[in-house]
């Protein structure tokens, strides 16, 4: 769902899924604090709102913005540790 172009740039396709406002609030809070708890993200964005690749992209975007992803114990995690199945993006079938 990642798109680029004049209609919104990198994050344009990311807006299409549910919970856009919540994602942006979490992103801004993480940038302001320099870290965010994974449990906080999971509570704000339950599994039915985001696919695994969308969830991985959110965590990857936070990580790329130098936001530490922490568990409740304070351990720093990577997007792949949080959503291991998220990088397995499905490819589209070739057009006939």
Keywords:
3 strands, 40% helix, 8% strand
Walkthrough of the structure:
This protein is globular. It is mainly alpha-helical and about 100 residues long. The protein has a domain at about 20-80. It has a 3-stranded mixed beta sheet with strand order 1-2-3. The chain is built from 4 helices and 3 strands. The chain is about 40% helix and about 10% strand.
Characterize this entry briefly:
This protein has 96 residues and is mainly alpha-helical. The protein has helices at 20-33, 38-44, 52-64, 79-82; strands at residues 35-37, 68-70, 76-77.
**SSE order:** HEHHEEH
Q: What is the percentage of strand-forming residues?
A: 5-15%
General form: globular
Radius of gyration: 14 Å
User: How many H/I helical runs?
Assistant: 4
Q: Tell how many strands the DSSP assignment holds.
A: 3
- Classify the helix fraction into a percent range: 25-40%
Low-confidence spans: 1-16
Most strands sheet? 3 strands, mixed
The secondary-structure class comes to mainly alpha
- Mean pLDDT across all residues, rounded? 79
Strand arrangement across the biggest beta sheet: 1-2-3
The end-to-end span amounts to: 21 Å
């Amino acid at each position: 769902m990642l798109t680029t172009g004049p209609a919104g740039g990198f994050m344009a396709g990311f807006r299409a899924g549910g919970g856009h406002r919540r994602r942006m609030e979490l992103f801004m809070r993480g940038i302001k604090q320099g870290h965010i708890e994974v449990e906080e993200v999971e509570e704000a964005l339950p599994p039915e709102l985001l696919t695994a690749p969308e969830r991985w992209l959110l965590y990857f975007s936070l990580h790329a913005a130098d936001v530490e992803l922490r568990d409740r114990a304070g351990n720093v995690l990577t997007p792949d540790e949080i959503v291991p199945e998220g990088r397995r993006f499905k490819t589209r079938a070739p057009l006939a």
